[in-house]
Design a protein that fits this description.
five-stranded antiparallel sheet; 5% helix; globular; homodimer; mainly beta
Chain lengths: 121, 121
């Protein structure tokens, strides 16, 4: 029940594609992450996932098109929809995510980027 | 699955204490609202509620203390905890909320401020 400063949380780590949990609300969690380059194509069969861009430009690739998100924009990736976030020109993009607790961020895809436990910060 | 611009959504209405739904993620909804002055004391018996301040300074009053939130800060109000948001000096504060679909924003309190249906924008 304390105030959480998103920028302070982001300053506490530097790894890319490594989600950090900053809050839990009902059965969902709030996560921050730093993204750079391309992630892995994956889907979450049972969970929707929300991305909010805090800094930079995120490109959310779907199978049939790509959505461009600037800071202050959000997108909901519905369950079952294959997606792959990517940043361009070596830009580090900061995002806040809302998703179910216990979700695997690489969904149905095992990757060298897969992180089993999200640090709580 | 389209990009949602939070500022554009906020520009589309002016009423205070009137939540507008901009997205649904699993069984939770993303809401934006403009706050000015004091709300009503209430609690949500079964639901946690997240506030993210987008503009201005929000004061979240609890029975034993008040938390001050600036833009870029979030707070989770746990289920069962009495609270009352307030803004100072006539400031209009913009917030994004993350809460269960179907929740009553005034919780257990009926008020002239109670809105039954959140417009979807």
């Amino acid at each position: 029940m304390n105030t959480i400063n998103i920028q302070q949380k982001l300053k506490s780590f530097s790894a890319h594609w490594h989600p950090h949990q900053i809050a839990v609300v009902n059965d969902m969690q709030v996560i921050v992450a730093k993204l750079k380059g391309e992630f892995v194509w994956h889907q979450h069969d049972e969970e929707d996932e929300l991305f909010q861009v805090l800094r930079g430009t995120l490109y959310m690739q779907f199978e049939d098109r790509t959505e461009k998100l600037e800071a202050g924009e959000i997108i909901v990736v519905p369950r079952g929809v294959k997606h792959c976030p990517i940043t361009k020109d070596d830009e580090e993009v900061h995002v806040l995510l809302f998703e179910k607790t216990g979700i695997k961020h690489t969904g149905n895809t095992e990757s060298t980027l897969t992180v089993k436990d999200y640090p709580k910060i």
